[in-house]
Every structure is written in structure tokens, then in C-alpha cells.
Specification:
419 residues; alpha/beta; Peroxisomal Thiolase, Chain A, domain 1; 10-stranded mixed sheet; two-stranded antiparallel ribbon; disordered N terminus
Length: 419
């Protein structure tokens, strides 16, 4: 397949993988979402005693050796281990075997926000205490953000297009959208795509806490992440990886693959406004949603479900509410079911778009909508249908997934039932 193809190819989702704070497989993650399971608790990855925020959504009891041999795992940062694990799950779920015949037509696109920050912290300590000669030779290849994409290719044999968007909290969604474009335009037959993050580290938590971005509800971690709730006091960090297998339709049909949804739209914009704050009124986010709808030849009234970015910060939640009203029209926005799953998983930063893309696809496949937990006192400025506290059965023909990142990055992905 080449760039010269004149007609955009149809792209479908044939496999999913997930390593999350509420489940380390897709089935466990999905059941966790539907049962309103909350994976947030005290930080155990370091001693948080002196920190203003001492809670996070950690992936508990993750054993990389279930997916990677011990020697290789030792030379991989935690975010890359998550990415390889979720990618191998997704390939198995898709029943997709990478071999000599198709390897060059299967690529990898995996986003992250900060990459191997823990490696940098640890090796900086070695440098200061023991000198430069004792710094690990694996410091740079373990630390750099593109290594999740590179290692997934190494561990799966995928030799096609390979890249790693680093667009803060929009990175996972940018990776899925960019992979979608590559298949549409004939550069690949299939892509392993999504996001991964393992940023629950001393420096990261301290930095976000200093910026007053994190919840300090340390004595009540299960109720700390409260998207769209008037009593929220900041977001809660999470970690993990979510991966989709996107495949060109004819290729998927030729091998008898199960199709969970069709990906039809990708919108990407920038606020060009502020390093960390969204533009008031959500103009940039609204344009991203509108572009995804236009790309998918969808009308605003067709949107059944939106997996919102919904970080549990006042700036995001109110801006996103305004953006959805502006993009869909207020009447259509009020008819859509909307939820933020970050109340359960925490905010995976660059990995968020991966696990939330998985959730949006499963909503389409199962006609079930995950809830927004801890939504007990709705913010008056967030007055849409945020599916509070309990999952809902509803026919979902079209689902959107929103992701927004520091720097003003805005992404919206559109999925619909395959027919």
C-alpha cells in the first residue's frame, strides 16, 4: 500500500490492551469501570511523608516478567514495561501475528508525557553521591520518551512506521490519531497505538503539588478525584498503559478479525494561549471536537457518548463543559452521555488517551457507559449529563474521546459502530 492511494482507507479497532490502576487486563479494566471501582490510594512507590499530596492511582502487583524476560525488563523504565505489556495483550486480543510477511506493514505509535523520569531521578542521585563514572550506561536509552515505541517494536517485531508523540496529557490520543492517519493514507496496514506513563515519582508529584494542581484529600483517597464536582480540589496522578490495534478494514476482514468499532475521526488543535491553562471558553477544545466530527462525516446530534478529559480541576472541567456545548450545540450536548473515568483511575497524563480510547471503544462495542464517580455535588458550571456514580446501559453508535494537554494541545477521537 502506498501514498498514491486516492481513497482514504477505512480503519477499524481489532484489539485492545490495558494496564491500569483498576485492572491489568482489558476485561478487568472494563469491569472495574462498570462497577465504579476506584484504584486510588496512598503512594507506595516512594515515601511521600513530606509531600502535600500523598495519594495516587498506582498499578498494584505489576510483574513485568509476565511479558518480558528478566534481563530485558531490568533495562526498561516502568512506563516502557507498561507499554510492552499492554501492546502484547492487544496483539493477542486481536489475534494478530506479526511475521516476515507482514512486519513491514505493522507500525507502532505510542505517546507519553514524561517518559522515564524515575530513571533520571535515580541516576542523578548516583551522579551526585558516587560520581559520573557510576552512572548507568542504560540511563539515556531507558529515560528517553520514544523508547516505549521502540521497545514495543523490538518485542513484537513490528517494522512499520514508528514514532512517539510527546504532547503532555494529549499524547496517547495523538498517538491513536496519528496511527489512524497512517493507515487511512496507506502507509501501514495495522498500527499498535496508545499511551503509557509511570510518572508517580518524587520530582513529578512535587512539581504538580507545587503548582497546586493535585488533590490533597490524603485522608480520603477513594473520594479525592472528583471530576465535575463542586468539591474537587485537584487531580490525582495515575499510571499505566492503554493500547489499541488499529487495522485497515480489508486486512482485518481478510483474516476474520473481530471488529470492536470503526475509527472515523481525529481532530487536533492548539489554544496558543498559555503553558498550563486552557483558553477561557474552550475555543481550542471545541474546534478539535468539531474537526473530529467533520473528519468522520458525523453530525453533532449523532454523538451518544463522550469520554471527557475531566481531570477534576476547576479550569479543565468548566472549560471542557463550555467546549462541548460550543462544539455540539447546547441541546445536543445535553442529550449526550458524558463521563470522566479519571475518578477511578486517576490521571495517567500521557497515558490517559490510551486507556480512555479503550473505554470509548468498549462503550461502542457493549452499549454501556462508565460512570463519573464521586459526582455528589455537581459544579453549577458543569451542568451536562455526566452519568454520576453508576454505569448506564445505552445504545452507543458514536463515541468521542477528549484529551487536552499543557501547552494548549487539544485532541478528539471519534469511534462508531462498524457496519
Amino acid at each position: 500500500m502506498t501514498q498514491s492511494s486516492t481513497q482514504r482507507k477505512r480503519v477499524v479497532v481489532t484489539g485492545l490492551g490495558a494496564i491500569t490502576p483498576i485492572g491489568k487486563t482489558v476485561d478487568d479494566y472494563w469491569q472495574g469501570l462498570l462497577s465504579a471501582k476506584i484504584g486510588i490510594g496512598p503512594i507506595t512507590l516512594f515515601d511521600p511523608t513530606d509531600y502535600a499530596c500523598r495519594i495516587a492511582g498506582e498499578v498494584q502487583d505489576f510483574d513485568p516478567h509476565d511479558y518480558i524476560d528478566r534481563k530485558d525488563a531490568k533495562r526498561m523504565a516502568r512506563f516502557a514495561q507498561f507499554a510492552v505489556a499492554a501492546s502484547k495483550q492487544a496483539l493477542t486480543h486481536a489475534g494478530l501475528d506479526i511475521n516476515d510477511l507482514n512486519a513491514e506493514q505493522i507500525g507502532v505509535m505510542l505517546g507519553t508525557g514524561v517518559g522515564g523520569l524515575k530513571v533520571m531521578e535515580d541516576q542523578n542521585e548516583v551522579l551526585l553521591k558516587r560520581g559520573p563514572s557510576r552512572v548507568s550506561p542504560f540511563t539515556v536509552p531507558m529515560m528517553i520518551a520514544n523508547m516505549a515505541a521502540g521497545l514495543v517494536a523490538i518485542h513484537t517485531g513490528a517494522k512499520g512506521p514508528n514514532s512517539s508523540p510527546v504532547t503532555a496529557c494529549a499524547a496517547g490520543s495523538n498517538a491513536i490519531g496519528d496511527a489512524f492517519r497512517l493507515i487511512q493514507q496507506g502507509y501501514a496496514q495495522a498500527m499498535i497505538c496508545g499511551g503509557a506513563e509511570a510518572a508517580i515519582t518524587q520530582l513529578s508529584v512535587a512539581g504538580f503539588a507545587s503548582a497546586k494542581a493535585l488533590s490533597t484529600r490524603n485522608d480520603d483517597p477513594l473520594r479525592a478525584s472528583r471530576p465535575f464536582d463542586a468539591e474537587r480540589d485537584g487531580f490525582v496522578m495515575g499510571e499505566g498503559s492503554g493500547v489499541l490495534i488499529l487495522e485497515e478494514l480489508d486486512t482485518a476482514l481478510s483474516r476474520g478479525a473481530t471488529i470492536y468499532a470503526e475509527m472515523v475521526g481525529y481532530g487536533m488543535t492548539c489554544d496558543a494561549y498559555h503553558m498550563t491553562s486552557p483558553v477561557p471558553g474552550g475555543e481550542g477544545a471545541a474546534r478539535a471536537i468539531q474537526l473530529a466530527l467533520k473528519d468522520g462525516n458525523l453530525q453533532p446530534q449523532q454523538v451518544d457518548y463522550i469520554n471527557a478529559h475531566g481531570t477534576s480541576t476547576a479550569a479543565n472541567d468548566r472549560t471542557e463543559t463550555a467546549a462541548m456545548k460550543a462544539a455540539l450545540g447546547e441541546d445536543n450536548a445535553r442529550k449526550a452521555a458524558i463521563s470522566s473515568t479519571k475518578g477511578m483511575t486517576g490521571h495517567l497524563l500521557g497515558g490517559a488517551g490510551g486507556i480512555e480510547g479503550v473505554a470509548a471503544v468498549l462503550a461502542v462495542a457493549n452499549d454501556r457507559i462508565p460512570p463519573t464517580v464521586n459526582l455528589d455535588h455537581p459544579d453549577p458550571d458543569c451542568d451536562l449529563d455526566y452519568v454520576p456514580n453508576q454505569a448506564r446501559e445505552r445504545e452507543v453508535n458514536v463515541a468521542l474521546s477528549n484529551s487536552f494537554g499543557f501547552g494548549g494541545h487539544n485532541v478528539c477521537l471519534a469511534f462508531q459502530k462498524y457496519s
